[in-house]
Amino acid sequence: MEKEQDVIVAKRAGFCPGVKSAIDKVLELAAGQKPVYTIGPLIHNKQVTDMLSAKHITSIDFPHQATDKSGVLVIRAHGITPQFQQEIESCGMEVVDATCPLVKHAQNIIDKFARQGYHTVIVGDGEHAEVIGLMGYTQGRGTVVSGPEEAKKLPHFDKVNVVSQTTQKESVFYQTAEEIKKHADMCQISNTICQPTKDRQKETIEFAQNADLVIVVGGKHSANTARLAVLCRELSSAVQHVETEKELDETQILKAKKIFITAGASTPEWVIDRVAERVKQLRASTHP
Length: 288
Ligand code: SF4
Known about the structure:
CATH superfamily of the largest domain: 4-hydroxy-3-methylbut-2-enyl diphosphate reductase, catalytic domain
CATH topology of the largest domain: Cobalt-precorrin-4 Transmethylase, domain 1
Strand content: 15-25%
Shape: flat
Number of domains: 3
Distance between the termini: 23 Å
Radius of gyration: 21 Å
CATH class of the largest domain: Alpha Beta
Strand order of the largest sheet: 1-2-13-11-12
Number of helices: 11
Bound molecules: iron/sulfur cluster
Helix content: 40-55%
Structural class: alpha/beta
């Protein structure tokens, strides 16, 4: 933890191990001779996607969109459905699977219980790429709910396996699982929230509630950053969600006594550093 003039930068801010590994893999591949294609944007962060485009790493939705078939296709950290994986692997191009091992763990748990006849309920965002991928392992018996309120509308199941999107808020997962228990004869609860997300949430709860201002750095379209911002708003009355230092509300920064800076799993370190640097500069200019 870095502490300087009451500006604290979260130790766990920025890239999680899954995202970091996917980016490292892609950059290593881009250093070779072949063009590199990612199936969907590698992460939802404009600064990173701009940097990848500059290195001719192209995001496509389907293998047939690759203009050079001698290139490499990369499956991103979120993972995909097994059906789509099969399609990609049989398209004739070289494939590199950068699915995060912790997403794979969730896929394996769903697969195991779905094969035993369990219905799967995923607590998460049904439109998120990871959840779309997870649904592919449910043997066609899967439902996504965003929280306990939606879970109340579920029908009755003989056997249900409750899993989580890896970046879900832990309290939401357990409240939802409690509700789902009422809808099943047999209920298997598999907390598949990944450890880096749990650690980030724990750190956020500890520091955000003692700050006068929380700055959340990360893409406006990044689901995990948006969720982190929601968590911070529950803990602190003043929260700024910014993509870069240019969006900072300087008046708030000068007024606040204690500032906590954190970031989503898809935010690069250099973006966090620039925000932290700008915050410290501003405060140094008025509190010499
Ligand atoms: S948030 Fe967790 S599961 Fe998702 S890529 Fe990062 S480490 Fe892996």
